[in-house]
Amino acid sequence: MARRDYLPGEQEALLIGILLGTAAGVRTDERYDAASQLEDFPSDQVVAALAGVAGDPAQPDDTLVDLCAESLAGIWIHRGAVDHHLLARLGPRGRREAERTVAHRAPELLAR
User: Among positive and negative, which fits the CA dihedral 92, 95, 88, 41?
Assistant: First the structure.
């Protein structure tokens, strides 16, 4: 299969759609993959989508919350700063996972 070239922003928009389950027939494992892959796209739109899932108190899928929180933490690490305001808005599970990821990969960022 030939590799597809994406326009700027197109790949992250597709992954956000998969994460949020807006496309018809999106499987759970595809949502998990999208949550993990979005760490590679540190845009504000991606942060908002990941935080929306990780901070949704009605989100029943703990694995999806964990993956979104991990990717969110990865973006903060890439940016060199934790968004403490956003971290505080995550649900308890998402907050724990994001803090755990930052503590493991870049503990100095938690103090900033």
Answer: negative
Using CA atoms in the order 70, 91, 87, 11, what is the torsion angle rounded to 10 degrees? 50
pLDDT at 8 (0 to 100): 81
- The CA angle 91-93-97, to the nearest 5 degrees, is 115
Fill in the amino acid letter for 19: L
Cβ-count burial of 109 within 10 angstroms (0-12 exposed, 13-18 middle, 19+ buried)? Answer: middle
Q: Which of 38, 6, 1, 3 is nearest to 19 (CA)?
A: 38
pLDDT tens per residue across span 41-59: 999 999 999 999 999 999 9
pTM for this entry: 0.91
Three-state DSSP state, 106: coil
Distance of CA 19 to the CA centre of its chain: 9
Per DSSP, the chain holds a count of helices (H) and strands (E) of: 6, 0
d(CA 99, CA 101): 5
